[in-house]
Amino acid sequence: MKTIKVSVVTPDGPVYEADVEMVSAKAQSGELGVLPGHIPMVAPLEIGAVRLKKGNATELVAVSGGFLEVRPDRVTILAQAAERAENIDVARAKAAKERAERRLQAKQDDIDHKRAELALRRAINRLNVANRNF
Amino acid sequence: MGASLRDIKARINTTKKTSQITKAMEMVSASKLNRAEHNARSFTPYMEKIEEVVASVALGSNDASHPMLVKRPVKKTGYLVITSDRGLAGAYNSNVLRTVYQTIQERHRSTEEYAIIAIGRVGLNFFKRRNIPVALHITGLPDQPTFADIKEIANKTVNMFADGTFDELYMFYNHFVSPIQQDVTEKKLLPLTDLASDKKLTAYEFEPSQEEILEVLLPQYAESLIYGALLDAKASEHAARMTAMKNATDNAKELIRTLTLSYNRARQAAITQEITEIVAGANALQ
């Protein structure tokens, strides 16, 4: 099978680099699948999981937003934070989830509310990816 | 003479101890500098890629505009100033702060016209003491900061430009040139006007649209620039501290050398005096 080079890069360094058969990610306009030979494209991503299909195995990377850049022979995902499923700190994600839930309960102004909501979504996303809940 | 001998001895000992400490601090800073350079290196691929994409998208085919790309009349200016939390880093902090202070004095007449965003305690205290308004600040950053550490302040800073709190934003920090040279740098962060890229621009398809991509891309890019400046500043801080501590160690060694010399002289003088007294005493008995 033809493959495409994928790299997931964050400000703290590269997180994932490999040749895969298919990349699928959740873009803001909907679920997006990229195969080798795709035309150049840029799409913003949602907080979600990037699935990387390699043979029979599928690897998961949790990303907190960012965007996806596609070229015919390579895909680059630029996110402010990203972790591979096996590197996720589940305890920390759980703690973050509880913290965000507590903040949402308390009445706050719009900005803090929005921030807590995003934090909650990131935490849930990490937990889902860690449990391969996709 | 005896007391002064003891004084000199005590001074030699304290200086020795100080030099041991500065030597240790020098080595700690050297290893921190190593790691800071490593962090800056792992950030480079991200920065290069995002620069390339931003240039391609923003300068691409049709001229889509975004508030962050457009110059607007300046009513208020933001200054993001990066200093360290602790001193003992030579002129590291004072160089930056002096430059910022002079710039502000030259460009503005009242405190209404600008606001400071301070990263680092030294800078924060400096501006507070002079009654300069500090809009945002963060202190206690680790020596090897990760993006998550400054995400919030970077995000708020970029939002302050977006919501019109200020109309342009400059960054002041020490740019790392080499372990012995760090230059104070002023960099215009927002609006993003110099988006030239030497790489070939790619014509992309946009999903969903160019405007919506810029909406995500530009704030993320601006935040990355802030993080890049912070990494640069941290490398400079460690380098400056290393050099300062090296100088302190060298000075201590020099001081120990002169003190040892005067100690030996004083000791010799004491012995000579004693002999003279004994000889004089013996002569008196004859």
From TrEMBL, chain A:
Residues 90-133 form a coiled coil. The keyword Iron does not apply. It is found in: Cell membrane. Keywords: ATP synthesis, Cell membrane, CF(1), Coiled coil, Hydrogen ion transport, Ion transport, Membrane, Transport. Residues 4-82 form the ATP synthase F1 complex delta/epsilon subunit N-terminal domain. Produces ATP from ADP in the presence of a proton gradient across the membrane. F-type ATPases have 2 components, CF(1) - the catalytic core - and CF(0) - the membrane proton channel. CF(1) has five subunits: alpha(3), beta(3), gamma(1), delta(1), epsilon(1). CF(0) has three main subunits: a, b and c. This is ATP synthase epsilon chain. It comes from Anoxybacillus thermarum. The gene is atpC.
TrEMBL record, chain B:
It comes from Anoxybacillus ayderensis. Its main location: membrane. It is found in: Cell membrane. This is ATP synthase gamma chain. It is a peripheral membrane protein. The keyword Ribosomal protein does not apply. Pfam families: ATP-synt (PF00231). Produces ATP from ADP in the presence of a proton gradient across the membrane. The gamma chain is believed to be important in regulating ATPase activity and the flow of protons through the CF(0) complex. GO terms for biological process: proton motive force-driven plasma membrane ATP synthesis. InterPro entries: ATP_synth_F1_ATPase_gsu, ATP_synth_F1_gsu, ATP_synth_F1_gsu_CS.
